[in-house]
Amino acid sequence: xxxxxxxxxxxxxxxxxxxxxxxxxxxxxxxxxxxxxxxxxxxxxxxxxxxxxxxxxxxxxxxxxxxxxxxxxxxxxxxxxxxxxxxxxxxxxxxxxxxxxxxxxxxxxxxxxxxxxxxxxxxxxxxxxxxxxxxxxxxxxxxxxxxxxxxxxxxxxxxxxxxxxxxxxxxxxxxxxxxxxxxxxxxxxxxxxxxxxxxxxxxxxxxxxxxxxxxxxxxxxxxxxxxxxxxxxx
Length: 234
Description:
2 strands, single chain, Arc Repressor Mutant, subunit A, two-stranded antiparallel ribbon
């Protein structure tokens, strides 16, 4: 399979967009193997980390499946909910809209999770949060924060909410590198998570929603300011 080289400035989004178009047009069919990281990186003129991140996004979107070290197009790739969301994920949506959706969905998730959680579930949430407090690696911040919120989502045992939450987080991955730079947000995450788990244990729905709204509003403002300063420095 031969693919045209893409501009380096577009990187992961363009790789995902290109492969998505090939899949939906039937140029790459269900069950077909994708080239490996090295081969695909050479064909597209990008680095292996870009290809690796693109593969991860495609996995999260349900477009491909991993078999050993091989990526294979999923049988239901073009019909999955995630697949239909790809065009939106690749567009420059407004940051405000994404955070509005996160506040609503994550608030409902946390409230439902609080009703269903056991004492051991709250212990696990606190353990994840302690890892964030004790880990100074900026790269690990994103992973542990996602793990904390995924645990809350899993506690709901609600497939519809889980699917919506997964789509939102797939969309939010676009900001991963920016979030790594938001050290001010990192410094408050531990305390925000601690307050959230406390409120969930008390089953205090008003406080749960207030904490999530406050935390996400602060993250949104910091992200907007960072992106604006980046534009001005160019």
